[in-house]
């Protein structure tokens, strides 16, 4: 994916201005600008299953073993749930005018629903505005209109849980993070890992290297190697392939992955993965579209329903797994671990004591927490 723009900042950078609002216990908490809603969502007419066409636009190849492969499992689930409808998809859609052309082609072919598995910003918005009878969904989007909604996974909770394991397993107190671009999804992942680690081991720090790609095994291998040579004995990141896991396997250190279960590429090094599962969500969205009950809306897929930590690797001690899973149980029960005070990398308090970062905050996180280096 080296030729593509990052998922979270696709067309025009959304470096949102932050203002002050009251947080918990009356504390002032930096608030992100509201995610845009430009029109009231409306119901679209029902569609018979045998007459329906659902189109998927993918950011990468369905064989990437990561992000797009996870979305493709959702496509397969839709086909199984609704065997009489038709599905079409296009892989590796570029972030250019070609994206607009492809989305227009979906509409021209008669699609009643178009699902983009990445943020295509104005490229998809221009098409949805001109096709009000078609339902559009955008993964990692930021705009809701009458017929365009967005969805995303709350991966920061799974990352926090994995961070607890990292904080307990590291011997050098140095975590390495292989990132793609300095965008909110990467900040949220790295920050959550370190905050989880520091909850059980305050001495831990995290060094990140951005490789300007979601899928570049050579660059990810180089980054993982550099981090290991700099003393990091636990690697994590947000890549669509397992290159740095192979580095960890070769060097006898540990690693946590993203998107899917990748333990086959480093069984001794594998700790866990931020696991994505869009199957139930996509089946439900299509069901609503067919029934005429679908409405454009923002949607976060919560922990346990679309995103979770993977089954622990064989090298994770049972007592460490129990400690990390105790936090998982608390989060599933409604607890939010992203509580102030939280300082940024320069030592400034960004989230004061008594305040909590909700999902809207974390979704637009664009600064590194104290102890994280290499992202800014």
UniProtKB/TrEMBL annotation:
UniProt xrefs under Gene3D superfamilies: 3.40.50.2300
Family annotation (PROSITE patterns): TAT (PS51318)
Record's keyword annotation contains Signal: yes
Keywords for this protein: Signal
Transmembrane regions: none
GO cellular component terms, A-Z: plasma membrane
Keyword Signal listed: yes
Domain ABC transporter substrate-binding protein PnrA-like: 54-294
Pfam families, A to Z: Bmp
The protein's name in its UniProt record: BMP family ABC transporter substrate-binding protein
